[in-house]
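Q: I'm writing up a methods section and want to include an example of the input and output format. Could you take the sequence below and give the corresponding predicted C-alpha cells, formatted cleanly so I can copy it straight into the document?
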Amino acid sequence: MSSQSEEAKLEKNTGFLDSAAIGLSALCAIHCLALPIALTMLPVIATMPLGDESFHKALLFLVIPLSSVGLTLGCRRHRQWLVMFWGVSGLLVMTFAALFGHDLFGEALEKVATLFGACLVAGSHTVNFKRCRISECEQPRDCG
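A: Here is the clean output for your methods example:
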C-alpha cells in the first residue's frame, strides 16, 4: 500500500515539475522576444533588472534544478532516456548562452541560442509529461 502511495506522489510531483519547467522556459522565451520591443517603446524598462544578464542567471538558477529533478523522475518512470538527453542539451545551451553568449556571439545570437535552448527544455518536458501519462495508463491499475 505504501509503495502505491509513494508512486502516486511521484506521479504528481513529476507532472508539477514538468509543468513548472515548461512555464519557466516559456517565461524565458517571452522575455527574450518581448524585451527588445519593450525597451524601444519604454526606455524606463531599461533601468529594470529584466534587461540585465543577472535575470538570465536567476532563471537558470530555477530552471536547472527543476528540470533536472523533473526529467530524472520522469525518465526513471518511462525509461526513455532520449528525453533527458534533449532536456540536458537545452539546459547546456541556455547556460552557455547566459554565461558566454553575449561576449562570443553578440546580443542577437545570444537570444537565438537562449530561445533554442528554452525550446529544447520545454519540448523535453512536454514529451516527458506525455510519456509519464502513457506510462501511467500502462500500469495494471485503473487510469480513470
